[in-house]
From TrEMBL:
<protein>
    <submittedName>
        <fullName>Stage V sporulation protein AE</fullName>
    </submittedName>
</protein>
<feature type="transmembrane region" description="Helical">
    <location>
        <begin position="6"/>
        <end position="24"/>
    </location>
</feature>
<feature type="transmembrane region" description="Helical">
    <location>
        <begin position="83"/>
        <end position="112"/>
    </location>
</feature>
<dbReference type="InterPro" id="IPR014204">
    <property type="entry name" value="Spore_V_AE"/>
</dbReference>
<dbReference type="Pfam" id="PF03862">
    <property type="entry name" value="SpoVAC_SpoVAEB"/>
</dbReference>
<dbReference type="InterPro" id="IPR005562">
    <property type="entry name" value="SpoVA"/>
</dbReference>
<keyword id="KW-1133">Transmembrane helix</keyword>
<keyword id="KW-0472">Membrane</keyword>
<feature type="transmembrane region" description="Helical">
    <location>
        <begin position="31"/>
        <end position="48"/>
    </location>
</feature>
<keyword id="KW-0812">Transmembrane</keyword>
């Protein structure tokens, strides 16, 4: 039964992403960001861990799990280390390369003005 729920929940997350493309006309970048932020918010309010227990891989494989991992690591290290843990927790739980890409991309976005 766990495989069925993983399939249904993972598929529902993907359907939500597809609806964002088709109905709301969001770009892939906007949709991906929305899903990561939703995963982060759900973890921040304590809803993502029960969701993972229920859905298994259906909740851990989609991009929403990345937002969950970022917030989960930051909050865990905040409790253990203090305010510095917000940054170090991100690096501890997720890979350093992916976290660095996010941070440096954000900093570059603050400095560089895209041509359009």
């Amino acid at each position: 039964m766990i495989y069925l729920w993983a399939f249904i929940i993972g598929g529902a997350i993907c359907v939500f992403g597809q609806i964002c493309f088709d109905v709301f006309k969001l770009t892939p970048a906007h949709t991906m960001t929305l899903l990561v932020v939703l995963g982060a918010i759900f973890d921040g309010v304590g809803l993502y861990d029960p969701f993972i227990e229920f859905a298994g891989a259906g909740a851990t494989v989609p991009i929403t799990s990345f937002g969950n991992a970022l917030v989960h690591g930051a909050l865990e290290e905040l409790k253990n280390v203090g305010w510095v843990g917000i940054i170090t927790g991100i690096f501890k739980v997720t890979s350093a390369g992916v976290s660095a890409a996010i941070i440096f991309s954000f900093l570059a976005a603050l400095v560089v003005k895209p041509k359009g």
